[in-house]
């Protein structure tokens, strides 16, 4: 088992302003890594960076970027060209419950850029950089159940399935270069994404775990050089034992309800 600081001295975290991304930032700062914090919200990133600097004495850099925009990953890569990055946490993502055919194609393309293309571009750039330096770590964040297909979340689930397959394969491709790759596959983590998607916390079949606990497990899995990790013992059992057809039906019911809630919320705002 390796120590997370051995990847250092800098880590890049996308989607760092809240949820799992913020929890990664807090863990890595406590371990002494300097941080590049990337997301759309400049104010929240600056506040987080200043807080982590006060608490842990780390250096930080804020990169305000919309990773759903073509070319944005290149801007983040360029913004880190002058620092010795050894760890990439590619976490940024989003979703919109509902039938795929009811959603504007332009919005689907934007979300695919964020949920899949950006991960590809960042892994390609930083993976190459890490291989050249002979060491490095990559954590990609996917979603539990994506590989089985998620009705009423077909598009975003498909993109997350790509991320999971990509990371699992790269774990083996890059093993001989000194670069470790782990895919974190969260399923019941309590983050603001739940509210954004219109989900109700009572919809989840098992108790939600904190983002801090999930990211702690993810970093431990990276240190143990595991290709995939589902945080939470109960969710690992569910993933291992429950048939994909059942998972697909359960997730479909949850996302159908979430889509209806979002529609009602938007109608209420419009009124």
TrEMBL record:
Q: Which UniProt keywords apply?
A: Oxidoreductase
What residue intervals traverse the membrane? none
Q: Which GO terms describe its cellular component?
A: membrane
Per its record, what are the GO molecular function terms?
oxidoreductase activity
Give one Pfam hit by family name: adh_short
What family classification does the UniProt entry report for this protein?
A: Belongs to the short-chain dehydrogenases/reductases (SDR) family.
Alphabetical list of PANTHER family matching this protein: DEHYDROGENASE/REDUCTASE SDR FAMILY MEMBER 7B, SHORT-CHAIN DEHYDROGENASE-RELATED
Descriptive protein name: SDR family NAD(P)-dependent oxidoreductase
């Amino acid at each position: 088992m390796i120590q997370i600081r051995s990847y250092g001295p800098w880590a890049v975290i996308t989607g760092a302003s809240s949820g799992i991304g913020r929890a990664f930032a807090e863990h890595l700062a406590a371990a002494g890594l300097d941080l590049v914090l990337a997301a759309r919200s400049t104010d929240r990133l600056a506040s987080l960076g200043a807080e982590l600097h006060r608490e842990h004495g780390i250096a930080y850099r804020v990169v305000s970027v919309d990773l759903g925009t073509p070319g944005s990953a290149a801007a983040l890569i360029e913004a880190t060209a002058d620092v010795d990055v050894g760890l990439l946490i590619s976490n940024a993502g989003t979703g919109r419950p509902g039938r795929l055919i009811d959603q504007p194609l332009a919005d689907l393309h934007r979300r695919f850029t964020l949920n899949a293309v950006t991960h590809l571009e960042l892994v390609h750039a930083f993976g190459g950089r890490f291989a050249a330096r002979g060491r490095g770590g990559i954590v990609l964040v996917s979603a539990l159940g994506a590989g089985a297909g998620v009705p009423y979340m077909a598009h975003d689930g498909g993109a997350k399935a790509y991320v999971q397959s990509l990371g699992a394969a790269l774990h083996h491709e890059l093993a001989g270069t000194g670069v470790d790759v782990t895919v974190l596959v969260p399923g019941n983590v309590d983050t603001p994404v739940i509210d954004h998607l219109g989900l109700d916390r009572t919809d989840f079949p098992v108790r939600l775990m904190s983002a801090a606990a999930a990211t702690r497990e993810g970093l431990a899995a990276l240190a143990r050089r595991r290709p995939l990790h589902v945080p939470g013992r109960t969710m690992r059992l569910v993933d291992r034992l429950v048939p994909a057809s059942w998972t697909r039906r359960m997730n479909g019911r949850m996302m159908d309800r979430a889509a209806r809630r979002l529609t009602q919320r938007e109608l209420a705002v419009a009124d």
